[in-house]
Amino acid sequence: MDFGEKLYRLRVARGIYQKQLALYLHVSVGTISNYENGIHSPDLKTLSKLASYFHVSADYLLSRTDYISPVDALEQKLIDQYTTGDIMNAILELSSEGRRDLVKYLTMLSACDGASLPSLSGPGPESLAFESPDGEPGSEDMGAEDWKEVPDDSSV
User: Fold this and answer.
1) 19 lies in the same domain as 53
2) pTM of the model
3) Whose CA is closest to 7, among 44, 38, 30, 45?
4) Could you give the CA distance from residue 140 to residue 117 in angstroms, rounded to a whole number?
5) How does pLDDT run across 101-136, given as a tens digit for each residue?
6) Quick count: other Cβ atoms within 10 Å of Cβ 1?
7) Which structural domain, as residue segments, surrounds residue 105?
8) For the chain, what is the domain count?
9) What's the CATH number where 44 sits?
10) pLDDT tens digits, residue range 10-41?
11) Are 54 and 14 a contacting pair, CB within 8 Å?
12) Could you give the residue ranges of the DSSP H alpha helices within the chain?
């Protein structure tokens, strides 16, 4: 998806008219139309204003990433002293096997919590299968009561 299409979709999804966006950016409605139709591209200052206005990153608008949240979301505190960015950096330092295990663990936690992870691109669900307590591949609809308790090793 190119810049113009992303801009159009963001604008329409938020119920904003071209005229409203043009007023915010101090440009003409025709300029907004030209951006959306790929005729012109905004300068850096305008690109930054668009990213702020729609609460997305400039990298998202420029199709450098599919990560739609603004960069300042990485500074959000999750628990204790850990931010989203800290967790992401820790994940990036894991081996590919460690990342796969993490996704499996998160999928299990989400299922136990009654939530579901956002769609993850990459390997299909068959590579994220868990083993059930009896050693057979489990299904994603298993509840927390179907998993064996693992003894706490902290008393060792």
Assistant:
1) yes
2) 0.55
3) 38
4) 12
5) 988 888 888 888 776 666 554 444 444 444 444 444
6) 9
7) 94-149
8) 2
9) 1.10.260.40
10) 999 999 999 999 999 999 999 999 999 999 99
11) yes
12) 3-13, 18-25, 29-36, 44-54, 58-61, 84-93, 96-113
